[in-house]
Amino acid sequence: MAVVDAHQHFWNLETGSYPWLTSEAGPIFRTFEPAELLPQLAAAGVERTVLVQAMDSYADTDAMLAQADAHDVIGAVVGWVPLRRPDEAAEALERYRRHPKFAGVRHLIHDEPDPDWVLQDSVIEGLRLLAAAGLPFDVVAVLPRHLEHVPVLAERVPGLRMVIDHLAKPPIKEQGWEPWASLLARAAECPEVYAKVSGLNTAADAATWTAADLRPYVEHALELFGPERLMFGSDWPVALLAGDYAKVWRETGTALSGLPPADRAAVLGGTATRFYGIEEPA
């Protein structure tokens, strides 16, 4: 079973536009391209990645697909289409689905002024296009409100597979629990909803976090989703705000160390391979 990093990004500040990325982002306010990540993947034994959009634009999606063409290690691309404009989204999906590695859609809903953006009728119509095409939706859940939307979307868009990015950013640094734990449990009741064990280091204390800080939240997710609906992701290079690739890989592995080998293998690759339709290495 291939080892898969189900959530990583690239961006080029010279050729692309990423308005959310400013000098305030510190170490990640620069270009990140495959040449920098490839040796780190090899060192961790990661064989495939899921490259996820970092901007709501065709240019970002086109750049990712070009990178996927150039690098076999990129097993799937989660791109963007204008969900709020369903007719245009349908045309974009028809074009992008011709690419064998186009495997899902995400929208930076946490950057929208309206926290209920995803519940608009036009967006629901766009999400129904994804369901009809068999393409999943990556859910950026930063606010509790975003996580509340997941069961609503499951009801309004039957057949839509969703994956919650970064376990919806649990309050690790504050050692908090609610409402995150209950909202995640409600989302997990929907059988087509999955979640990513990713981005947890940047929800913890950047200077001191270890597997021990992550473990209660990871174990809660395992109880709710089971390994068959959880997948590991590094969230590189955003992960550099609180460590590096090697530490994220090592500490996540430690947090999962109590699992039976088959369950651990599912979280570290099997689930993502199945969810995104990734072709296994020869």
From TrEMBL:
<feature type="domain" description="Amidohydrolase-related">
    <location>
        <begin position="4"/>
        <end position="278"/>
    </location>
</feature>
<comment type="similarity">
    <text>Belongs to the metallo-dependent hydrolases superfamily.</text>
</comment>
<dbReference type="InterPro" id="IPR006680">
    <property type="entry name" value="Amidohydro-rel"/>
</dbReference>
<dbReference type="InterPro" id="IPR052350">
    <property type="entry name" value="Metallo-dep_Lactonases"/>
</dbReference>
<dbReference type="InterPro" id="IPR032466">
    <property type="entry name" value="Metal_Hydrolase"/>
</dbReference>
<protein>
    <recommendedName>
        <fullName>Amidohydrolase-related domain-containing protein</fullName>
    </recommendedName>
</protein>
<dbReference type="Pfam" id="PF04909">
    <property type="entry name" value="Amidohydro_2"/>
</dbReference>
<dbReference type="GO" id="GO:0016787">
    <property type="term" value="F:hydrolase activity"/>
</dbReference>
